[in-house]
Design brief:
This protein has about 450 residues and is mainly α. This is F-box domain-containing protein.
Amino acid sequence: MALATLSTEILLIILECLSPLDILCAVQASSLLYRVFAAYKNHLLRHTLCESIHPSCRADLYTALDAQKVPKSLKAKEPIGKVKMECFSLFSGDRNRRRQNHDEFKIDNDELDTLFYLQADIERLIDTYCHWSLGNLSSHQETPAQFHITSSYPRSNLSPTEMGRLQRAFYRCEVYTRFQRVLSLLDKASVLNFSQIVLCFVSQFTLYEFEEFVCVQQFLAQFIRSLVEKVEDDFFSHLPSQSTGTGAKQSNIGKILDDSGLSLFTKSYRDNHHSSHVKYLISCGLSNILHLGTLEPRELKRAMLRSYAESRGFAGSEFFSQGALDLQSCSEKQRQVLLHGKLVDIPRDTLHSPNLGWEWGTSFQNLVKSDSAALLDLRNRGYVFWDRKRLQDSGMVDVPFVVAVGANYFPAGYHGPFVRPSVEERLDGSEVDTRCLKKWKDL
């Protein structure tokens, strides 16, 4: 049935059933739906936000909205004191909200637009996260890809509990990134005092809620790594297979890349600077990371080169490790438990208690705990977000709740953030025309 044959009332009901992200997609695709949206904008914004946001996440949502007022940068000679006061107020308001009930959705009309687009960005990131982590979960018997979209898992397939866990993790991550950004703007004398605010913010959460937050941080790091690899792919697509002219052997290709303004491609970048680059980009906010993922290759190249230059010396915090558990250091009893699973159970899935994945992961004393490097692969599967039924249906957990783990969950050795060599290493044995490098950089 054509939309034009439907009454305005029916079209309004259709839009009321959609989430913020879905509304944006709908009104971009249909001028008729856009006109209805424009005519009833405030009503639709308030209604769809109320319906899309899990009630238990409202305190986190309001704090994430307040965090939009924290500037991402300072103008020349602008005092830092005002920004610090904004953050202190943000933290104080967050603590007060957590002591209150939020049964009713309350938001001022002048903030509806900001919140609507923030929520749409969060939903897009949750979609991307589900593509990646649930794809890894469904292939649990294989070594998971660090960032690879394997299947489609729309938000509509998530349970309310799963959606609530994901929403609060992304809201909290948005607030944390704003705090991290301010840390980078402070002088050394102010950093210590302000760091206490950041630590107090994250210390409010239970260990399993903190692990949800860490899983999102690891996802964002993997996402940014994939952007670097997109830039590398674009570089190789423009590089002649056999360059002629002024060439450089592998012995000094790193210096040639540095001199050409392409330090992003060096092994030194990966070994010494990629982590700071990731933390810097995360500190710019979730919307900025999402925006980078939509850029065309040339725009992405400029953005990544520019942000890398800006990130030099950035020292934000991170709460995840790329390391892995060494099975050889385990006793025979510990090794057998790891390889054959462990019996765990939960009464039911709720937002106010840990899920089955967390109960299993933390049941291994001194092996799998909140800060354990061995959780790399489990975090890639979003193990703290999913309900018991999804974990069972994936095959990761069998009745009666024995996790079919196996050694793939605890690979020996170090997991670097990249799964392939750097551009510098891939050019080993080649001659590279410096004119080609500069031409590509200036495209």
